[in-house]
Prior knowledge:
- Helix 3 (65-74) packs across helix 4 (87-95).
- The radius of gyration is 17 Å and the shape is globular.
- It has helices spanning 2-15, 46-60, 65-74, 87-95, 144-157, and strands at 28-33, 36-44, 103-105, 108-109, 124-125, 132-134.
- By secondary structure, the protein is α+β, with helices and mostly antiparallel strands.
- The protein is 38% helix and 15% strand.
- The chain contains five helices and six strands.
- A hairpin with a 2-residue loop joins strand 1 (28-33) and strand 2 (36-44).
Amino acid sequence: MITKRLKQGKTIGARMGKWTNGSPPFGYCYERYKEKYNEKGLVINDEEKEIYRYIIERALDDISPNSIAKNLNKRNIRTRKGKLWSNVAIYRILQNETYLGKIVSNKQKGDGHRIKKSSAEEYRRLPKEEWVIVENCHEQMITEVEFERIQILIEKRRKLPPS
């Protein structure tokens, strides 16, 4: 019952335009950053925004996420947790719709853990029609045109079909 109510609360919060997805993505802070404030929402972290824009500019120049990660590591620029950048982290940043000012939730259902409870529902990704997408929840860091162009470049580079 607790899990059911928690999921309901997260879905309702997302529909209201509130950030309910855990720690915010790179480049954003939750609610407050210096003099910026957005109750229950995301605000742009100016230091991380510069790094994010660097990643976007390199991606628009058709540089691979692996090369971008290597370049950031060579320049001694670390992630928020102080770790080295990886190509997977760059891919996730480039494909995250949160940077468009949207909050996206309800993408999957079920338990993805290896050791599941007997009552747990099998993990599955939901179709895009069932996702909860709320636009204009916070300030965007990338334009729709840039985002679409990056998605095309990523798709063009893909060697394996999507799972």
